[in-house]
Amino acid sequence: MLFNYKVVTKEGQEKKGQIEAASSEIAVATLQRREYVVVSVVPDKQGGIFGGDIPFLGGVKMKDIVLMSKQASTLFEAQVSAVKTFELLGQNSESKGIQKALAQVTDDIRGGTSISGAMAKQPKVFSNFYVNMVRAGEESGQLTETFIFLADYLERSYALTSKTKNALVYPSFIITTFIGVMILMLVKVIPQIAGILEGQGSEIPAYTKVTLGISDFFVNYGWVLLILVVVAGAAIGRVLATESGRAWFDRLKISLPGFGNLYRKIYLARISDNINTMLTSGIPVVRTLEIAGDVVGNKVFQEVLEDAVEQVKGGNSLSSAFDRHEEIPQIMVQMIKVGEETGSVGKILKTLANFYNKEVTGAVDTLIGLIEPAMIILLGLGVGGLLMSVMIPIYSVAGNI
């Protein structure tokens, strides 16, 4: 979520800008860590329903950021200067959003700003996670390796997200087709058949009366139903825009039968991959957990990571911090504990990330295999049942003639 902020620097200068964070509290905490005095932090009103990764509205797609990161790692590996690297990337990117952001990044770097500092001014393109990874690369002198890490990580993340989204395309198409066909039949086909049945003067079966009643409702009061659906959708959208609404929805997602387990594995894979990538890049554990909480994408797991931050600050190990929460499976807790004892937490987390990524891939494939035939059967039963409820009485009348 994007926030507009107003702060005062240590030198007493007022500064305005934008920052991306999961909540206003996290945005304030992030600004305070930069040694700013926070005056105000308010949500960016342009980040509403249409503010996502929509190309024609100037948004930036994840695949464009993945491509840019890969190209940046190649150019840095070839020892091209930072200014020339981002200048070339901006000029050759197909994304208008990236072109604009990189042009500003190039100007800021020319003016003496660090790469991470310049990227931090473009929160619509570079997330908190991305900026901190680059900052760690600058501090350790491993900027090339950092961009290689980022490119690999973002590619894995994009592949996982894309596979999950693509798995829902076919079911969504079938459901939309099913609803469209049913409404078309109820509004256009059934009323014509109803006239034939009523003209015969014979007794109409109860199930046929129900079908005709539903058809009559859609013909005469369909607009009322449409208004109710739009109002309900808007109300749900407003509720989900609140902190409590998002928390409720995020908990619902990981509690749903079948889908809940899939969502859990997605978030666990993301947590493992994020922490491994940042620890490998030399980012301290506490800061790693803070950033992982910002980018995990689920309020429940974000709260788990926020609690883990406090536990680690208090001297507890990461495994014991995770062990306090039922959302983190015991296999993950025990493997991290082994990693802490052997000094190979990063390697263990990489293994866990690969494990959960494979689990997600397997779960999605299984889900697709089950959904496709189920949707086809549902479509056939719905349309067939609707036709049978009105065709059987017609055949009965025809048979008595």
End-to-end Cα distance:
69 Å
H-E order: EEHEHHHHHHHHHHHHHHH
The largest β sheet comes out as: 3 strands, antiparallel
Quick one: CATH superfamily of the largest domain?
Type II secretion system (T2SS), domain F
Number of domains: 3
Mean pLDDT across residues: 79
Number of strands: 3
Which fold name is given in CATH as the topology of the largest domain? Receptor-associated Protein
Short characterization:
The protein has helices at 24-33, 62-77, 82-92, 96-110, 115-120, 128-140, 143-167, 169-200, 206-240, 243-253, 259-280, 285-295, 299-313, 318-323, 330-342, 345-400; strands spanning 2-8, 14-20, 37-43. The protein has 401 residues and is mainly alpha-helical.
Polypeptide structure, described:
It is a single chain. The protein is mainly alpha-helical and about 400 residues long. The protein folds into three domains: about 1-45; about 50-155, Receptor-associated Protein (Up-down Bundle); about 170-400, Type II secretion system (T2SS), domain F (Receptor-associated Protein). The chain has 16 helices and three strands. The chain has helices at about 25-35, 60-75, 80-90, 95-110, 115-120, 130-140, 145-165, 170-200, 205-240, 245-255, 260-280, 285-295, 300-315, 320-325, 330-340, 345-400; strands at about 1-10, 15-20, 35-45. A three-stranded antiparallel β-sheet has the order 2-1-3, covered by helices on one side. Helix 7 (about 145-165) packs parallel to helix 16 (about 345-400). It is elongated.
